[in-house]
Amino acid sequence: METPILGVSGRAEATRPAPRVPLGELVFALLMLALGVFALVGVFTIHVPVGVKAGPTIFPLFVSIILLGSAVAVLVNVLRGKRAEVEEGEDIDPDAKTDWLTIAKIVGAVVAHLLLIDIIGWAPAASVLFGVVAWALGATRWWLAFVIGLVVSLVIQVVFGGLMGLSLPWGPALGWLGEVF
Fold first, then answer.
1. How far apart are CA 65 and CA 62, in angstroms?
2. Residue 134 C-alpha from the chain's centroid
3. Are 170 and 157 in contact (CB under 8 A)?
């Protein structure tokens, strides 16, 4: 559908395509909004211990509010027809095909992480996730990625699970470490 452009004389001089809401951007904005609502509802289902001033809901509430605010801003801009300009310096080949194998490896690693947390503990499962994602993205020294993942996940496990008391399962291999903290 063409929309006439009115000139100085008030007559139609040229036509341009009528503005359309880009479906992909609209779906993205609505999914962000739904995720924000889901996260906000989830915040109110978190058990807060009695007598705790700054409980475990502070950070999730902050993230939920930021997510909702961002979603509303994107949705308003999409509905107004504002689109970001394509960056000229972008080093992306628009004709390149999606590497579905890499995506499948990463999704598989996330699913494996979720399934392994209760079986082997959070830190070893996070190490597997880190290593597999690094390998899927082309790390040449994949074994080093697993070692780095293990070190980082152990530090996170001790700080958040041991010292701050968050629920990160230690697992059978690290159960003794949970008793220390």
1. 5
2. 17
3. yes
- Separation between Cα atoms, residue 150 and residue 160, nearest integer Å: 15
Q: Identity (one letter) of the amino acid at 75?
A: L
CB hemisphere CA count around 174 (13 angstroms): 23
List the structure tokens of 66.
């930021």
Which of 178, 167, 164, 159 minimizes the C-alpha distance to 54? 164
Backbone angles phi, psi at 15, to 5 degrees: -125, 155
Q: How far is 129 from 150, CA to CA, in rounded Å? A: 10
- Structure pTM? 0.55
pLDDT digits (tens, 9 = 90+) for 107-136: 999 999 999 988 888 889 999 999 999 999
Q: What does the alpha-carbon distance between residue 59 and residue 34 come to, in Å, rounded to a whole number? A: 19
C-alpha–C-alpha distance, residues 128 and 110, integer Å: 9
Helix (H) or strand (E) holding 50: none
Exposed / middle / buried, residue 33 (Cβ in 10 Å: 0-12, 13-18, 19+): middle
Tens digits of residue pLDDT in 72-87 = 999 999 998 887 676 6
